[in-house]
Structure formats: structure tokens, C-alpha cells
Write a structure and sequence with these properties.
Layout lengths: L3 E6 L2 E7 H5 L8 E6 L3 H10 L3 E5 L3 E5 L17 H10 L6 E6 L2 H9 L8
Antiparallel strand pairs: 1-2, 3-5, 3-6, 4-5
């Protein structure tokens, strides 16, 4: 069983460490995110930002924010992110209509692509 991994790109080591730590890393392509599907995207983004989620993004009906306290774009210095159920309560209290809510964790493949810029094709 693999417990540690190293990620190489074009002959150089770009990351290494325990498998779980690397996959959940706070760098590019890592961490834990919540995603809300709603017709009230701007209001939902304001709620997520107010709760201290980092890197809040919206495309109008889909809003995404980082649950990793020191993850990409967070800058909030909080030690514990809000629990997903508390996020839903805050959204409903702000009268955000929720069509869907998910918690997403980055996969090792997501991290590999983010670290190397490569998919399944090998760089030459």
C-alpha cells in the first residue's frame, strides 16, 4: 500500500509527502470546497464570504468557496472552517434559495494536474 508519493514534472520533483496530505493540500488544486447551486448567486457569495470561506467564486447560479482555513485565497486566519450544515443554515437564514449543496475534496489527480499542468499526456 502506498503511503507517500512524489510528483515529478519534466524530470524534476515538484511535490512529495504523505498521500493524504498531498491530496488534501492547500496549494493549487487542493483542499476542500463547498458548492451551492442557487438562483441567488450574489447573495450566496456574500454569505460564504461573510462566513470566512476563501476564494469564493460565482458564475451566477453556482457559487464555490474554500473550506480550507489557509487554502487558496482564504486569508482569514481561522483555525476551524464552519461545518457544512452551519453554512446551509446561514444561507437559508439569508433567504438564499438552494437547489443543491455539495462538499468537494480534491483528488490526487486534481493535485497532479494543478502541480504539473499536465493531464494524461506526458510533457516532452
Amino acid at each position: 500500500m502506498c503511503t507517500h508519493v512524489g510528483v515529478m514534472s519534466s524530470g524534476r520533483l515538484v511535490a512529495q509527502g504523505p498521500l493524504a496530505e498531498l491530496a488534501a493540500g492547500d496549494g493549487p488544486g487542493g483542499g476542500t470546497w463547498v458548492q451551492v447551486h442557487t438562483p441567488d448567486g450574489a447573495r450566496a457569495a456574500d454569505v460564504l464570504t461573510g462566513l470566512g470561506l476563501g476564494a469564493v467564486e460565482t458564475d451566477g447560479t453556482r457559487v464555490r468557496g474554500s473550506l480550507s482555513p489557509d487554502g487558496p485565497g482564504s486569508g482569514n486566519g481561522a483555525s476551524d472552517p464552519p461545518a457544512p450544515e452551519d453554512i446551509v443554515v446561514a444561507l437559508v437564514s439569508a433567504e438564499v434559495r438552494i437547489r443543491g449543496f455539495t462538499v468537494q475534496r480534491a483528488s490526487l489527480e486534481d493535485r497532479f494536474v494543478a502541480l504539473t499542468g499536465e493531464g494524461f499526456e506526458v510533457a516532452h
